[in-house]
């Protein structure tokens, strides 16, 4: 879309397995309609409730003393003066709370993996700047912060290990001595004889690629409120998390409390982008402290804490080579990946989440016959890496798409054409790529052609030719990608992870007044799930959209919940909603058949009413609820079914989403700034639930991808000190840097329930690669390649200067 107006649609690949009846045609459809988000009135008027807004009875507040050392033994912690400070209730160290919990272990069945324990406070030594060493609990945050200054810590400095290459060198200091190595995870994917195929290739292209560390930088920093119930010795943790069910289970196990005495609620959450999708030491700490002190306790990170201690993204170095035959068909690919995973594994995903997915997704949507990919996740003195929008695929797409463009250049084939030749085609699905991932039938070629048409690709090339005649640095970049979404139980979200994240539960209830409540295990952090899930329930239950209340993000509402991640909410939550709605609709029809004295097969459910087909006889949901719950004379005893239904949906494999991004950029030779003139996305997320929300997700994802491509970088020095820890130094795109976008939807329905595909991560996957290729294309007259992101003005300046130096040396 452009300026909110739908652009012309490309030809769609529709495969609707749906029997149309006259009643279906007449019934208003909610799925597919651009309905306004029901969340927005409260959020836009300041009526939302975030974790920091909680006001428990007489809460205490926590401030944390964080290490200024990257790697050091803790010799002594003296809390004497802090304990005497005004308002201080307790000062906690690792020794103080050692008997109050069991460490949380992000374990995995993967071979060659070491699981680092998650501790609420550093014990024995610190491993990165910002790791919490002690906690002050006081009557206000201000007094707690004052008391922090009074704690004395004596350190024995150890050699910092800040660079992953140095961490794997012989004799490097070990962050975890008990592991015996800084390589916390190692894996290999292999298919075919890649060495032979590379040797036989007509063209071989290679490079050393890097995407540097990123911060998720959600609007709302991490925030926790542990509210203690003295009567039941129970805890309710309000948390800015997108995995409340996983957090509940981990805290229950760590504190040896049964699940019914631990409730975890994610209220309104101001963004996550993955960074709030793990269990954090601070969550564990305030629950331990609340139970120990038998008081409610609150903590909210300031911006410095959030940037320097929340899980971070990417930090991958990839040495890769691709071979092509004379016709431009990719024959072989090999890659060696070093992932800088930081000091610890994260729960539950392990440190393998990001680097292993880089290697497993590296072949992308292409027909590459042989492949070898190796990966090492290396511990360094930095905060852990963890989930970030796209998880591994922004890096793998960047590498694969750069190699595709490099191959096209070497073979003198247009970048669009080389993708046409190599993408998996419609008659080749399901397709197992060289790393073993299986793509189901998806619009790879449809997206490529739709993006080229919407961008006016041929005209763009003519425009580029004219610009180059005038000496302008104008470039065009393409990126195609595929991703698994809504992953089911057969595929672990993180390799070897034993936690079941492959199913989700929906529980739908009609109460005695006819009100409808739909509870889910997913947890929204900005995606509009209250709206989209209600749209699905309204259609499949036959209810009015405005009558449905959606509850999500509360571990007490359904027996098993995990949360929202890996583009799963529409596929798994939506699938569960459809099945639960059908079960409940069956109950409604059976009750209505008694009230209307008609066969259930002759009834139609629509807009909150049940009608006898071909007549004007109807009964409302409210009347049905009254008959079931209140009026004991209307129904036979055996016909009084509780108007509730629950369903746990597992899509088994999940489904594939795909897109092609095309960017046109220009580089100012004086400032080396990159201006994006055009950006087009053609994406296939299956059957669209709400086009307005889908477009918003695309726009937001691309904006974030622009940040990864051009601006955002967490810079650490050789001593492990973060040099870009504030928004003065950590640069994100603002409105002028985000262009207007054309978005084309290719709706090829998936085989999972509802025909949905996930799509929340696509913008960050495709945009960095497309922009990188566009910059490389703009700089190609200077014989410059792009191998590092972000491509900041400083990096572009150095590339141009080096190119000029090479020319001078040759002359």
UniProtKB/TrEMBL annotation:
It holds the Pfam family MoCoBD_1. Signal peptide: none annotated. Coiled coil: none annotated. The keyword Secreted does not apply. Keywords: Molybdenum, Oxidoreductase. The keyword Oxidoreductase applies. Residues 1-52 are annotated as: Disordered. One of its GO terms (molecular function) is carbon-monoxide oxygenase activity. Transmembrane segments: none annotated. It comes from the Bacteria. Its EC number is 1.2.5.3. It is an enzyme of class 1 (oxidoreductase). SUPFAM superfamilies: CO dehydrogenase molybdoprotein N-domain-like, Molybdenum cofactor-binding domain. Gene3D superfamilies: Aldehyde oxidase/xanthine dehydrogenase, a/b hammerhead, Aldehyde oxidase/xanthine dehydrogenase, molybdopterin binding domain. Residues 45-159 form the Aldehyde oxidase/xanthine dehydrogenase a/b hammerhead domain. This is Carbon-monoxide dehydrogenase large subunit. It comes from Bradyrhizobium yuanmingense.
